[in-house]
Amino acid sequence: MGEQMIIMKNFTAKNGDINGLSVSFATDENGVDWYESQKKFQSDTLKIIFNNEGVIVSMSHDVSALWPVGNSVAEVALEEVPTGLSINGEWVFDSQKILPRTTTLDEWQARAESMRQSLLKEAGDVTTDWRTELQLGILSDEDKSTLTEWMGYIKSVKKIDVSLVEDEATFDKVAWPEKPKG
């Protein structure tokens, strides 16, 4: 990597007027104009946009295809781009290189809670009509039995302690209860 790669941080936009046309101007934290700086980027590099947590949110070989407002930009030599790089939130730029993103404890617990809420919503959707029929006194004994199974399932899902989820391994080991057959 002979030449210094460019890093520009914390872009903001200002609206302006050119010959009666409304346009947006982007500048980095040092006041450097985005459009003017584009010609300084090399053509044979990958340009990435990353947010204030370093998470890569966009990328292109063509710098003119990017709009960095609210984020930062870095130029990365192609030989330093890891295989499988994507903008799905699983990669970060640490001001020097691209690395796989480490998911935090809070994020793992939020994923587990999201899974719980999804299962509870599904169970709620399945049981809504039966609960209405039960309140009206028109639920068959067979459906009452199935509703009881689903309500037990809902209780079991609610009992799962997501605070025990710390990482991918513990997330994968969560023993979500089996859904009733009916």
Beta strands, count: 8
Low-confidence stretches: none
Please list the strands of the largest sheet in the order they lie side by side.
1-6-4-5
Residues in helices, as a percent range:
25-40%
Shape: elongated
Q: Give average pLDDT, whole number.
A: 93
Q: What count of structural domains?
A: 2
Strand content: 15-25%
Please outline the major beta sheet: 4 strands, antiparallel
Number of helices: 4
List the helices and strands in order. EEEHEEEEEHHH
Cα-based radius of gyration, to the nearest Å:
26 Å
Looking at how many chains there are and whether they match, the oligomeric state comes to single chain
SSE-based structural type: alpha+beta
Query: In angstroms, what separates the terminal alpha carbons?
Result: 62 Å
Describe this structure in words.
- The chain folds into 2 domains: 7-100, no CATH class; 105-172.
- The mean pLDDT is 93.
- The chain starts with 6 loop residues before the first strand and ends in a 10-residue tail after the last helix.
- The chain has helices at 34-37, 105-136, 141-159, 168-172; strands at 7-8, 12-18, 21-27, 45-50, 56-60, 72-77, 91-93, 98-100.
- It has 182 residues and is α+β, with helices and mostly antiparallel strands.
- β4 (45-50) and β5 form a beta hairpin.
- It has a 4-stranded antiparallel beta sheet, with no helix packed on it. The protein has a two-stranded antiparallel sheet with strand order 2-3. Strands 7-8 form a two-stranded antiparallel ribbon.
- α2 packs antiparallel against α3 (141-159).
- It contains 4 helices and 8 strands, in the order βββαβββββααα.
